[in-house]
Each structure stands twice: as structure tokens, then as C-alpha cells.
From TrEMBL:
GO terms for molecular function: tRNA (guanine(46)-N7)-methyltransferase activity. It comes from Paenibacillus pasadenensis. This is tRNA (guanine-N(7)-)-methyltransferase. HAMAP family: tRNA_methyltr_TrmB (MF_01057). Keywords: Methyltransferase, S-adenosyl-L-methionine, Transferase, tRNA processing.
Length: 257
């Protein structure tokens, strides 16, 4: 859907060089220089109006965030959300750890260097429901292969969607590219709204409508995978120890009966 921006919007965006980036390629491999620090970088691909990425930036000052979208009007609205997120906390100005990038995700390999990112968010991406358009889905293997390059050793992909079709397609894509999935949920807010997670505008609306939200995390980087395997093995060890303990208690109880 093409958004109609108001007159002079490009000039407004050009006046925010510390927040809005209109030329992605010149920052490839230099995003830490843009932010002026070595903090990990998390990117939301298709940020919409920017609520999610703005809230994350104020909640997590030790992480740098980049919201990506291709429309001037959405970048403008996101800049307003970024300012509002700070004002709600009694802070002035825009978040110093946030950049709003106007770019086409098709060119993501021209935007980020290998290992430059730590996390990618795919929130309510266009499901492109027609089979002939499957290659445009942001969880298509052709995109996942690029994500795997630009993510670092701790790299992860976090996805949320209301589309069952897209979610099933995504799970198959992750499996096809041999990526490790965890925390898979077919109805994220079934019991109660997860207040530990930042909600997007779409997500809040879908929750009110009673629609299920699908979510999963994908572990990509080598160090992240090693930590995941260690955690899984430790959990299995705890479960086995608990089973042995319960069995011993049952035997003791039986002998005393």
C-alpha cells in the first residue's frame, strides 16, 4: 500500500540527520560509528509507524535500534513516536540509540555488513498470501540466507504475526535453512497479555479482536546456538534429576505403607 505523505515531508526527514537515515549504503559496516559506541544492534524490518522500535529504544538503553521501512510517511510517523516515547518518561529529545532507516528490505545486503547485527525483528510482515508471491515474504529462505550473514555470533530472529499461513511458511523456511527454533507459540496472549513483550500497533488491535498471535524465536549465531544447547542440556538434566527424586520418594512411600 502506497502512503501519501504531506508536502515537504522529505525536507522534514532531512532535518533529522541523527535520527533519520536516507542513504543506507554509506553506513554499511559503519553503524557503530553512527551510534558512537559498540553496543549490540537490533533491527526491525518493516517497522510501520514505529511504536515497537521506539518503545524498545527507551526501555533498553544498552542496545542500539534501527527501524527500517520504505515510505517517507511511515518514517515521519515513527519519528513522532520516538519523540513521544521519550516524553512519556520525562525525557527530552530523540532516543540516542535509535535510527530510522528509509530503505527497501530487498537490498538488505547493501545496508548491513556481515556480522553487524545481533537481532532481527519480523513483526506482522506482509504475508503475501498468493503462492506466486511467496518469494516476497520476509521469512523466505532467500532472505533468511542474507540474515544469517549479517547477524553476528549471538544473532537471533524474533517473529510475530497474526497470519497462520505466513507462520506455517516461516517455520518450514527455518527448518529448510537448518535454523534452530525455540519459544514457538500459536497463541502468544492466550492466557494473558504478555506485558514483558513490547506490543506493536497491529498486535494491540488484533488482541482486542481476539485474534491469536503467533510467535517464535530463531537462533542463528554460533555462540547463541551453543548457549541454547547448553541451556537445553541443563534443563534435561534437571528434569531427569527431578524424575529420579520423585521415583525415590515413591519407592520410600511404598515401603512405608
Amino acid at each position: 500500500m502506497r502512503l501519501r505523505g504531506r508536502k515537504g515531508i522529505r525536507e522534514e526527514l532531512e532535518a533529522l540527520p541523527r535520527l533519520v537515515v536516507l542513504d543506507a549504503e554509506k553506513h554499511k559496516g559503519k553503524w557503530k560509528e553512527f551510534f558512537g559506541n559498540d553496543k549490540p544492534i537490533h533491527v526491525e524490518l518493516g517497522m510501520g509507524k514505529g511504536k515497537f522500535i521506539s518503545q524498545h529504544s527507551v526501555r533498553n538503553p544498552d542496545v542500539n535500534y534501527i527501524g527500517v521501512d520504505m515510505y517517507d510517511e511511515l518514517i515521519r510517523r515513527a519519528s513522532e513516536k520516538a519523540l513521544l516515547a521519550r516524553e512519556e518518561l520525562g525525557l527530552e529529545g530523540y532516543p540516542p540509540n535509535l535510527a530510522l532507516l528509509r530503505a527497501n528490505i530487498e537490498n538488505i545486503s547493501d545496508m548491513f555488513a556481515p556480522g553487524e547485527l545481533e537481532r532481527i525483528y519480523l513483526n506482522f510482515s506482509d504475508p503475501w498470501p498468493k503462492s506466486k508471491h511467496a518469494r516476497r515474504r520476509l521469512s523466505h529462505p532467500r532472505f533468511l540466507e542474507q540474515y544469517a550473514v549479517i547477524l553476528n555470533e549471538y544473532g537471533e530472529i524474533h517473529q510475530k504475526t497474526d497470519s497462520r499461513l505466513l507462520f506455517e511458511f516461516s517455520l518450514n523456511s527455518y527448518a529448510e535453512t537448518e535454523m534452530q527454533m525455540r519459544a514457538i507459540s500459536l497463541d502468544l496472549h492466550r492466557d494473558e497479555v504478555r506485558d514483558d513483550l513490547v506490543l506493536t500497533e497491529y498486535e494491540s488491535k488484533f488482541i482486542q479482536q481476539g485474534l491469536p498471535i503467533h510467535r517464535c524465536e530463531v537462533v542463528v549465531g554460533a555462540s547463541a546456538l551453543a548457549a541454547y544447547r547448553d541451556e537445553k542440556n541443563a534443563r534435561r538434566s534437571r528434569e531427569a534429576a527431578k524424575e529420579r527424586e520423585d521415583l525415590e520418594k515413591a519407592k520410600l512411600h511404598g515401603s512405608q505403607a
